[in-house]
Amino acid sequence: MNEHLLGGKPTAQPEKTLETFENPNTNRDFHIHMEIPEFTCLCPKTGQPDFAVIYLDYIPNKLCVELKSLKLYMWSFRDEGCFHEAVTNQILDTLVGATDPKFMRVTAKFYVRGGIFTNVVAEHRANGWQPQPYVELSQFSAQSNIRG
């Protein structure tokens, strides 16, 4: 029997709550980048599906978002009518509420609909947080570890 099925039905269900875990290194700012390539919701005007890639970039404070709960949260929009701008901001607000990050950016890149691509970017910064200065390092060639 497939362990992911119970009586032929999936055991995982869409969920609006997010689980978190403790930041493993609160002494350092580090960047977490996630790509969610299968985001779907419904057009609130037509009911047709909208598809997007959601990019999540954040610098955690004390908590990080747990990946399985994030997947189930994203799945929860599949049958909801959402304007692109509203759902992007809703995702950011929910994630900020759950994790209270130093910085978070949600970028939603919606696929073409009626000849128009829509990209929506929403950001949050904790009061007083400033990013560390960027350090430019030289790049290694793509094949630098191959003897030849």
Task: Give a quick set of tags describing it.
148 residues, alpha+beta, GTP Cyclohydrolase I, domain 2, 4-stranded antiparallel beta sheet, two-stranded antiparallel ribbon, 2 helices, 17% helix
Largest sheet: number of strands, sense, barrel closure? 4 strands, antiparallel
What is the CA-CA span between the terminal residues?
A: 49 Å
CATH architecture of one domain: 2-Layer Sandwich
What percentage of amino acids are in beta strands? 35-45%
Which structural class matches the secondary elements? alpha+beta
> What level of helicity do the residues show?
10-25%
**Biggest sheet: strand arrangement:** 4-5-7-8
What is the assigned CATH homologous superfamily of one domain? Answer: GTP cyclohydrolase I, C-terminal domain/NADPH-dependent 7-cyano-7-deazaguanine reductase, N-terminal domain
Give the overall average pLDDT: 91
Radius of gyration: 19 Å
- CATH class designation of one domain: Alpha Beta
Number of separate helices: 2
User: What oligomeric assembly is this protein in?
Assistant: single chain
Catalytic activity: 7-aminomethyl-7-carbaguanine + 2 NADP(+) = 7-cyano-7-carbaguanine + 2 NADPH + 3 H(+)
Main location: cytoplasm
GO cellular component, one term: cytoplasm
Function: Catalyzes the NADPH-dependent reduction of 7-cyano-7-deazaguanine (preQ0) to 7-aminomethyl-7-deazaguanine (preQ1).
